[in-house]
Amino acid sequence: MDYLGVVLLVAVVAIAFVVIARSSVGQGRRARAEQARQLALATRAAEADVNGFGDEVSRLAVLADDDPAAADLYDLVTALHSRALESLREARQPDELCQVTEILEEGRWAAARLAARAAGEPMPSRRPPCFFNPGHGPSTRNVTWEHRSVPACAADAARVEAGADPYIRTVERDDMRVPYWEGGPAYAGWARGYYSSWRGNRLVADIALTKV
Ligand SMILES: [Zn+2]
Question: Which of 9, 86, 118, 135 is the most buried (most CB within 10 A)?
């Protein structure tokens, strides 16, 4: 190879390196932007749930008066609300929102026990969150919906059994509102956290077949 050939070869190799470096920088930037977008979407969903739980905590405050056992439950509920808020603030990846919803699931269960105690009703058995919207809190029974057995809150179970549509939680995806199980990877951690204590349980066996 003559001198000119060597110079040309070096130039081609150098240009190739610049092109590769630029495209990998671009890919890294795009991946970070996509992750930030997904985190913002999932944070919005988790924030709505933490706020909904906060409203419930405020309503429960009066129930804890003059009953030490109820007061203990109320302390647990408020501690779990604080932990959920903290986890929400600390989440840096969309998947980390699973910690928030796992705490919320436990919190809603403690809140249901407190409400039952205050009403003088028997303690409810622990059940997975309502499939149609885990933010509704613990389910009361399973219902058949679209050929699946899914846990449902009392209100959604009554709607489904009456032939009406349940109140399905929708989320934002590509500027549209879709059921959360069609929300894509942004919401995977958020949804998974609600059911992480129920993995392998027969009550949620049919849910595992969906894309939650
Ligand atoms: Zn429900």
Answer: 135
